[in-house]
Design goal:
Layout: H1 3-8, E1 11-17, H2 34-50, E2 55-59, H3 69-78, E3 83-90, E4 101-105, H4 107-119, H5 129-137, H6 142-172, E5 183-185, E6 197-204, H7 208-214, H8 217-240
Parallel strand pairs: 1-2, 1-3, 3-6, 4-5
Antiparallel strand pairs: 4-6
Helix pairs in contact: 2-8, 4-6, 6-8
The structure holds zinc ion (ZN).
Zinc ion is lined by residues 18-19, 25, 34, 88.
Length: 242
């Protein structure tokens, strides 16, 4: 195997730090802004992944800039990405609520997105090469296209389930979990029909203790390292079993 082979076989992780610029995200009682925690964890996670030869990374933002949802979604329309991981911090009116949680797209939202794609002939979404080929050869076969997209979505769900098991396992060694179950949401950032996507709420900025912790490099590193180890475990296993 030569170097170019190695590069093309790398797992591409798109890291999305939530909010940024004029959008601070949630704000803690002591003034900590969610956007700052998100970018810190995203940059650390990038470092961990880039130091590992099986991964390459793309960031939706690498500084304190504001990105619209549309701009964020351009990244996975135009790049072949194996996984999107979006990083956020939660908030609650109840100050005692704390802990991390994981979110994936709700099936009903994904249904809607797939149907919208099929109705809209000008969609410029980049699919995996093999799927793109079938789509090009069967431009007007909506039934076939829908079947493929539905199958792909169940495969993505499986990836998200398996991966979340690894993430929970790593996180619970290091930080408090809010819930040890995946949550479903109709979130725009998770709604892309061509890549699996998972969103982590790393803790509650409205909890006094977690706001303090989330502001430290030590605690941020615990989270980014846990995410890295989970990705490593999941993807080295799937690579081996190919
Ligand atoms: Zn957020």
């Amino acid at each position: 195997m030569n170097n170019t082979d190695n590069l093309s076989k790398k797992i591409t992780i798109l890291i999305d730090a939530g909010h940024g610029g004029k959008d601070p995200g949630a704000i803690g009682h002591n003034g900590l802004q969610e956007k700052k925690v998100n970018i810190a964890i995203a940059l650390q996670l990038k470092k961990f992944l880039d130091n590992d030869k099986i991964f390459r990374t793309i960031l939706t933002r690498n500084n304190d800039s504001y990105l619209s949802l549309k701009t964020r979604k351009q990244f996975f329309k135009k790049n072949h990405v194996n996984l999107l991981i979006s990083i956020h911090v939660d908030s609650s009116k109840k100050r005692y609520v704390s802990g991390a949680s994981l979110w994936i797209i709700s099936p009903s939202r994904m249904d809607r997105e797939i149907n919208n794609y099929l109705k809209n002939k000008n969609s410029d979404i980049l699919f995996a090469e093999s799927i793109q080929k079938v789509f090009n050869e069967n431009k007007n076969d909506l039934f076939l296209k829908k079947t493929i997209l539905d199958l792909q979505f169940s495969n993505f769900q499986k990836i998200e389930f398996d991966l979340s098991t690894h993430i929970f396992e790593q996180l619970k060694k290091n930080i408090k979990l809010h819930k040890i179950e995946l949550n479903y949401a109709s979130l725009g950032i998770l709604s892309s029909i061509n890549i699996p996507a998972i969103l982590i709420e790393t803790g509650f900025i409205t909890n006094f203790w977690e706001e303090k912790q989330l502001n430290t490099t030590f605690y941020q590193k615990k989270i980014s390292n846990a995410l890295y180890l989970a990705l490593k475990k999941y993807f080295s296993f799937t690579l081996k079993s190919k």
